Amino acid sequence: MSYSFEDLTEGLSASIEKTVTEQDVQAFAQVTGDTNPVHLDADYAATTSFEKPIAHGMLTAGFISAAIGTQLPGPGCIYLEQTLKFRAPVFIGATVTTTVTVKELNERRRRAVIETVCTVEGKKVVTGEATIMIP
């Protein structure tokens, strides 16, 4: 899906779903170099408040980029800014639903402010706001 600026309206939303796998977490660690053992070592994670490995917060935030770049506004849009609040851990095997909703439009600058929410079983795990330029 791809929207032109003129197609966008406040309140318009789109969602994607992704189940986080151990392979996703391993690949993210390899690509980024973030080898924090809370993500990769079950024995270490067992000693933390999470009790088992958690996905990288930025991996989950990456699902926001996927929703914006493929669904709303879609291909060709340019990410300018993103705020994030990590509200709860995401465990391997969890299905993350990412919803992006047009909050505000700036016609003169062809920009949209997008509310970004990731949930697992209805519980918010990451929230934020993105500013996107639409070509």
TrEMBL record:
Broad enzyme group: lyase
EC number, UniProt record: 4.2.1.119
GO cellular component, one term: fatty acid synthase complex
Superkingdom, natural source: Bacteria
Recorded GO MF terms: (3R)-hydroxyacyl-[acyl-carrier-protein] dehydratase activity; 3-hydroxyacyl-CoA dehydratase activity; fatty acid synthase activity
GO biological processes: fatty acid biosynthetic process
UniProt entry tagged with the keyword Lyase: yes
Keyword annotations from UniProtKB, A to Z: Lyase
Domain MaoC-like: 11-116
Family matches, as PANTHER family: HYDROXYACYL-THIOESTER DEHYDRATASE TYPE 2, MITOCHONDRIAL (PTHR43437:SF3), HYDROXYACYL-THIOESTER DEHYDRATASE TYPE 2, MITOCHONDRIAL-RELATED (PTHR43437)
Protein name stated in the entry: (R)-specific enoyl-CoA hydratase
Gene from which the chain derives: phaJ
